[in-house]
Amino acid sequence: MNDFVNRTIFSPNPLRTKNDLSRFLVELLNPLAAHTSPGGARIHLGHTGTHYDDAAAQLEGFSRPIWGLASLLAGGGEYEGTKRWLDGFTNGSNPKSDEFWGNMRDKDQRMVECSPIGFAIAVAREQFWDPLSDEAKANFENWLGGMNDKEMPNTNWLWFRVFANLGLSRAGSSRFDAKRMKADLDHLDTFYIGGGWSRDGPEGVIQLDYYSSSFAIQFAQLAYSKLAQDDDPVRCEEYRNRARAFALDFVHYFDAEGRAIPFGRSMTYRFAMSSFWGALAFADVELPAPLTWGVVKGLQLRNIRYWAKQAGAYGPDGTLTIGFCYPNHNMTENYNSPGSPYWCCKSFVSLALPETHPFWAATEEPYPQELRETTKALNYPLHIITNVGGHTYLLSSGQQCSYPVKQSAAKYGKLAYSSAFGYSVPVGNGTLEELGGDNTLALSDDNGETWKVRRATKQARIEDGRWLRSMWYPWKDVEVETWLVSPHPDTPLWHVRVHRIRTSRALTSAEGGFAIYGQGKDGRALEPSTGEEFGTLENGWEGRAASRAGVSGIVDIGSGERTGKALRTDANTNLMVPRAVLPTLMNDHNPNDRNIWLVTAVFALPSVGDEEGARSGWTAAWNNRPRLPKEISAKILWMYTKRL
């Protein structure tokens, strides 16, 4: 039955060689033929809406697979369906065609789709530009160059115009605007903050998510450094230097099985999260130790192998779904059309390289041994990332979306994010079950009718390289100070949280651990138990759940006044699994208690590979409870005695 449900059409592909990766791409592209318009310019994959028009959404479906197709052709590969895209270039850019994409306006979604199109002309001009008729070329360059005098968002979007101009330059077009491209690049460089990291916008923007890496900025810098080396050598070398520094941080976001930690927006782009590793190879970056081409190859291909096996990521015909590990519109943004997920095709950039390139010639290596069982504080994104005990996750404070984004509190404001357990998003605005409050401290001032969680984090900083400290203010008369403490070597499966709440109103609190798959071996909902078998445990001041995904638990190690329970969250809250259980601690708080201290220990141990369930002997680790660092204990005691 599991094979019947969980097997994908890509499962037999070992995805270890360039030919394997090419075959995977072809099998992703083939199903699009049935959804392509007669003139080739539009791909229609569904009827869900976006904030932009349907013509732009269909252009998105057409353009994003080009990231992969262009790389395949640039690397000497062939694809029999290439003519569909050539016809699309002709008809989509022709104002007289029924399939015309429409001229660009200010801040138009069409600008985004110019990026893969410009990249395609830059790397595979012979296949994508030269075969066009003179009339088609004139229409095409007029359409693509139409963005040069339009207003763009002050974000990574500026890279899309850079790539449009790169394509026009490679085509020898008079619509190429060198002055515009240099101005865009100069402005994009002001986003850089150091250590390889760039913000997704000007000063004041504090998003450092996958847009700062694989989705946009780092990928774009690396591709540019390869394509513009002769014209802009100084900037290109700077981009390679940034990538070297960034790689030593970014490697920590991946686990030994190939999964990346879900964090931030646009998670439906899936294995675009690993495209940075292919872009390193595309740009011929000299790798910093302990990275080798075998390690980089492993990071990239393990991630793609993981996604090739996620049945819920694909529809019955092999097209990508909107969601993460299964179709899920609760976690999407209002710019996610049915064609949006094909941004993942950036991860095929390594197909542009010959088989003699060190990336392909190297023997794939596992995750570096010297980076296992480590914890690292990343000062720029304000993350502490750990993989001790076999669980890769990050502690987070200080990031938030600088503009309205659906579920932004869940995407940026949670206390922890895991490569194995993902994160959850609300499906409603009422019950705790609807909230999906994993790794949050949720507060209610109306007896649980509605809940507030951390979204805007203030005064966030890393202290002593071991914990994060920050403030948030859910109401004008309520403030919460939080410490997030990374695992201690003696208790590697635990991390500790401390919250100090100052309130003038009565509150109910609910603090969640990691949400975990909520079904047993028999496929039925978990039932209470007290042993190491799959089941859930509800026991006073702790909550715990064990399933085929591993074990998750939460314990009050402070006053012991909170009640623990394993909460069944509403279906489709979690990104990884549609049915989840969430260990949770709850309590009511009196407004006369000016300083409310919550001290929490969070336990998590994911299963490994194809082995279902937690590793044997995990109860010994569960019973070995962590302690607060003495520095934080002293601070709590001082604050308590001073009654601050």
UniProtKB/TrEMBL annotation:
Q: Which superkingdom?
A: Eukaryota
Q: Name one Pfam family in it.
A: DUF2264
The residue ranges of the DUF2264 domain are 17-367, 374-634
Coiled-coil segments: none
PANTHER family according to UniProt: LINALOOL DEHYDRATASE_ISOMERASE DOMAIN-CONTAINING PROTEIN
Q: What is this protein called?
A: DUF2264 domain-containing protein
